[in-house]
């Protein structure tokens, strides 16, 4: 298995790393630059993931999964996870249980929305060379934005009162839990694990988000 | 079974009517006025549903379910549905499958958000006597707000691409489907079933929302 990913798209890449590690599938990652995505996708026959706002031009997104053992190439997020479940049903857990795709997509969307206030900081991760003035400008607004994320995660935390375990569906990890973890993992990377900001984040909602990352630690690394 | 409900809270009442009808439970509705909710809740021993923003005062919401056969009184939305499932597991379908509470709460929240632009019109339903000037004022903004709802439902429609049936989880109705239907039902009541506006709504997303209401028609009425 091979993931093609631009070096800047850390968040999405981490997400698929969780998925592949959870399913105990071996893979390697090919890092490509943003302007090269379309050419590579066309070369290996990866489908475009969406149409541009003009309604005609096609848009190619990464990561793309290339499965050497079946020759399959997939480039759309939920489709990739559904493919892994279908092709490797007994390797690791099923990541999207039967009939649960719609609910998982809805929850994914809520996760993305919850972390939206921090997008400027995720964008920071894209800049390999950022001058200090820009950094100060971005970091000035951080406290306010972090309060918004805290509110959003607090709302999400209430939904967990319906769960019997630490995860969305009891104590077994699914597709949707990986989405939460990928955002937390990337946020930790941006603010720094030893920072006061991160210590604040992991104290929210009785430590729910700290526990999330701890539970997924075994699946965090490039295997 | 008895539902206490103020005469104005049509939307929420419809929601529980779907739930009770789907579960083939018999009930009658006691209509109470908004200022009388707290006194009634205290009298019958219904718990407050939330704390006021001051952090001290308690807030009592309706509907409240009073189950004569068990003596139980419940006043919080997901708790009511979970109670019905637990107490009457073999009467009608299970409305929240095991382990699905968190996902259903998240989806519920998305449904509420999707219809949020129309709140002024739901508020219209609260006014028994509204003068014409006010009505015109409200209706002027309708077209714009309806476009927002159309966009929101379009986003939600994409999540359904993951479902094998017409509902959120395949072709069986659950808690979450009733939430969608209650909003659609109430919207239809506000704009009028024969109006051009409603004909527009039911044409969206290849008729998905029209099919929703049709499927739930048998559970719509006071039984």
Task: Tell me the span between the first and last alpha carbons of chain A.
Answer: 12 Å
- Determine the most extensive contact between two protein chains: A-B, 24 and 25 residues
Contiguous low-pLDDT stretches of chain A (5 residues minimum) are none
Radius of gyration of chain A, rounded?
A: 18 Å
Question: Tell me, what's the shape of chain A?
Answer: globular
Proportion of helical residues of chain A: 40-55%
CATH architecture of the largest domain in chain A: Up-down Bundle
- The CATH C-level name of the largest domain in chain A is Mainly Alpha
Characterize the main sheet of chain A. Answer: 4 strands, mixed
Q: How are helices and strands ordered from N to C of chain A?
A: EHEHEEEEHHHHHHHH
Mean pLDDT reading of chain A: 83
Q: How many alpha or pi helices of chain A?
A: 10
Assembly type of the chains comes to homodimer
InterPro entries (chains A, B): Glutathione-S-Trfase_C_sf, GST_UstS-like_C, Thioredoxin-like_sf
Protein name (chains A, B): Glutathione S-transferase UstS-like C-terminal domain-containing protein
């Amino acid at each position: 298995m091979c993931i093609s990913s631009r070096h800047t798209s850390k968040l999405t890449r981490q997400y698929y790393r969780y998925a592949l590690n959870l399913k105990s599938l071996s893979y390697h990652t090919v890092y490509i630059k943003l302007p090269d995505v379309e050419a590579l996708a066309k070369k290996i026959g990866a489908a475009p993931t969406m149409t541009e706002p003009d309604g005609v031009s096609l848009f190619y997104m990464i990561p793309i999964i290339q499965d050497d053992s079946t020759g399959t190439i997939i480039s759309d997020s939920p489709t990739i996870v559904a493919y892994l479940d279908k092709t490797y049903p007994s390797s690791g857990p099923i990541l999207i249980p039967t009939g649960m795709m719609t609910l998982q997509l809805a929850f994914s969307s809520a996760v993305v929305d919850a972390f939206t206030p921090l997008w400027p900081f995720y964008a920071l991760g894209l800049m390999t060379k950022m001058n200090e003035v820009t950094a100060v400008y971005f970091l000035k607004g951080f406290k306010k934005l972090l309060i918004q994320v805290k509110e959003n995660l607090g709302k999400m935390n209430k939904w967990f009162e319906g769960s019997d375990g630490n995860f969305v569906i009891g104590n077994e990890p699914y597709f949707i839990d990986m989405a939460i973890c990928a955002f937390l993992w990337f946020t930790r990377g941006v603010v720094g694990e030893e920072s006061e900001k991160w210590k604040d984040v992991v104290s929210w909602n009785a430590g729910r988000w700290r526990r999330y990352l701890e539970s997924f630690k075994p699946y965090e690394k490039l295997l």
